[in-house]
Amino acid sequence: xxxxxxxxxxxxxxxxxxxxxxxxxxxxxxxxxxxxxxxxxxxxxxxxxxxxxxxxxxxxxxxxxxxxxxxxxxxxxxxxxxxxxxxxxxxxxxxxxxxxxxxxxxxxxxxxxxxxxxxxxxxxxxxxxxxxxxxxxxxxxxxxxxxxxxxxxxxxxxxxxxxxxxxxxxxxxxxxxxxxxxxxxxxxxxxxxxxxxxxxxxxxxxxxxxxxxxxxxxxxxxxxxxxxxxxxxxxxxxxxxxxxxxxxxxxxxxxxxxxxxxxxxxxxxxxxxxxxxxxxxxxxxxxxxxxxxxxxxxxxxxxxxxxxxxxxxxxxxxxxxxxxxxxxxxxxxxxxxx
Length: 338
What we know:
By secondary structure, the protein is of the alpha/beta class. The chain has 13 helices and twelve strands.
């Protein structure tokens, strides 16, 4: 079994006390320069790595960050985590991951049982239908900073990192209009989420700009899964006045819609346009390939962690809101000439 070097090993090699080694590593006033240099040289020689959990007790820092998010099994959140990890590990911080399974009750339970004394900050993407945020207020009252990303709590004064949901939706819907689609439906996420509301606004404003009407029954709110997309498409296709295209809140819903349309013999693109939002790798695999708005998930993860570290290191760091633009990726699902 691998032996991890501790300050006891350094003390043994130098024949000094453990407390002297500890004070030397913390550069306290009561250790002379010569002793401190010997301790540092021996620490390097033995490849000693400090135990952040232990030093945190003395310095008020644990070097642990909690990441709380709805899922880890989809492309977007797994990519966000990769971005978070890159910044955290380069800065000597550990990641403690919590998954809510998109449940507000589970989210509250996780926050209520967090080991606050061993965390320096939180990175959070809230669960669907979350409309109660007192549990986050309590964390902030304990001077633990929180940065929200993607799904944010708008009424809390914290830093937030998002993609440009409004303009991404506007561009996606306008693309459908420019390709000749006139009766555009929107299969949206839960209506309580800020980004759902912003994508809906982008959808409606694009229609208004081009003087196209919509119908209440062409806007369907549900979850984010592929199965939700199938059910939403089935509902739309059952209407007496059916739309000729679909703008989906995410790629999984869009792919679900495509699979349903194909099962009914409807030619996607030629007869029914579909645009998604995310640029999940599966959007290139589905046939026809899915037109989508690419989200900068990796960059969102990096920036979220960078902001959190600034809040940890500078208690007077003012909250910021960072918005990343999306990018329209045109593929076959929105072309009438495939």
